[in-house]
Amino acid sequence: MDSVFDILKMITVNHHTVDGGQLVVTDLEGKPNSLLTDLLRDTVGNMRLFIDLASVDSADDVLAKLGETTPLPDDVLDEYSKILKERVAGLNFAPQKSTIELLIR
Question: Which residues contact 30 (CB under 8 A, 6 or more apart)?
Fold first, then answer.
């Protein structure tokens, strides 16, 4: 399947980009991964604040724009790169919890 970045570009909720608070990273059995979820939420939060998702075509574009517009250190951008390039094995929409689960191996 696609990378986390590709999924973020593809998914909209009520015709708006997805809010990081709605995202949860889980394994294939649905067990949440709190470290990756926190990293993804932080990444999406900064993306929403500092860049227009429609204006970027790749995770590398996101990192370049964040590097230009924020004082984020390189090690943080490296972590953002890892989560944005992670392969998604599937999606699970849980409307009763208002969450979108990204299933990652």
Answer: 92, 101, 103
Q: How far apart are CA 82 and CA 15, in angstroms?
A: 27
Instruction: Label the pairing between strands 16-17 and 99-103.
Output: unpaired
pLDDT tens per residue, range 27-44: 999 899 999 999 999 999
CB of 59 closer than 8 Å to CB of 66 = no
- Residues 35-94 pLDDT 10s: 999 999 999 999 999 999 999 999 999 999 999 999 999 999 999 999 999 999 999 998
Q: What are phi and psi of 87, to 5 degrees?
A: -80, 135
User: What is the rounded distance in angstroms from the CA atom of residue 43 to the CA atom of residue 36?
Assistant: 10
**Is the pTM for the entire model greater than 0.85?**
yes
H-type alpha helices, 25-103: 34-50, 59-69, 74-85
